[in-house]
Amino acid sequence: MDFPDEQSKEGGFERQQDAFRHWVRDEPGARFRPEPGRYHLYISYACPWAHRTLLMRQLKGLEDAVGMTAVDPVRDENGWRFGEGDGFSPDPLHGWKYLAEAYELTRPDFAGRVTVPVLWDRETRRIVNNSEVDIMRMFDDVFSPLARASRPGEFYPPALLPEIERLETWIYLRVNDGVYQCGFATRQEVYEKHVFELFDTLDQLETRLGRQRYLAGRVMTGVDWNLWVTLLRFDAVYHGHFKCNLRRIADYPNLSGFLRDLYQSGRVRETVRLDHIKRHYYLTHRSINPNGLVPAGPDLDLESPHDREALGPAGTAG
Ligand SMILES: N[C@@H](CCC(=O)N[C@@H](CS)C(=O)NCC(=O)O)C(=O)O
Fold first, then answer.
1. For residues 46 and 277, is the Cβ–Cβ distance under 8 A?
2. Which member of 39, 42, 45, 47 is catalytic?
3. Where does 4-146 sit in CATH, by number?
4. Reported ipTM
5. Which of 18, 132, 160, 213 could bridge across to 311 with cysteines, CB 3.0–4.6 Å?
6. How far, in Å, from the CA of 115 to the mean position of ligand 1?
């Protein structure tokens, strides 16, 4: 079993809550203020949640204002590790060997799982936030003045917020975490419940994305990226490794068109490291892949035309 502390009596996977959820505010006297160079993002290119924060940093043009370091995609028994390799590097700020050191400095008695993403504050020397939901919103909002060219709130426009949040919750439970529920189930009936719920949700999303270019309607919003990070990993990892194999994303014309549409937008493809993604899952979760073999395929076709222009122009509300 890969995560024994998060296994329910019924054979399900119960994910821990994020531990640090402080907010960066542009207010006098605020403990964490948005300042260029002050915060550093620790990610893994493999992790879908961390990928969302990396995407928002790039989409907003925050690369100069917020530093970023990626960890080795393969975790060892001490968790996420820094090192020298293709697409990952030593910790430039403190020379940490493990990301666990950030958690220990922030809360010496931290007993949970050390996860990415982490937003680190160089000034107070602690983790500000390790929730991708919060980090995405802060990057879009309070960090916007530090960005090259962006408008605050363009990915979370107030008029669409109720719909975005409804979709976020549904997609998180059934899709983002749904694939993990299938993969880490330890009983047949638990796996089957989750796999049918997952594909029922994908079927509904396929219909929705046949009518409109983006999940919340005519404009791209943050929740599009929530779904996208899971679609990107689906055929390469979740289909085989997590046994989510009723269908592939490639079998869904609208979901795969949406995947390619967003992949081909801006410089998004620069955030994609399929080698990290595959190595991470197949080499880290040894209880479900004991020999640690990494499959050679599939050959993902992310560069072919997506034909989504007919549904409306590309872009956010900004
Ligand atoms: N913050 C996310 C979870 C983040 C997360 O679990 N990240 C994984 C990688 S995809 C991780 O860091 N796992 C570390 C571990 O399992 O030891 C959430 O609340 O859903």
1. yes
2. 47
3. 3.40.30.10
4. 0.96
5. 213
6. 4
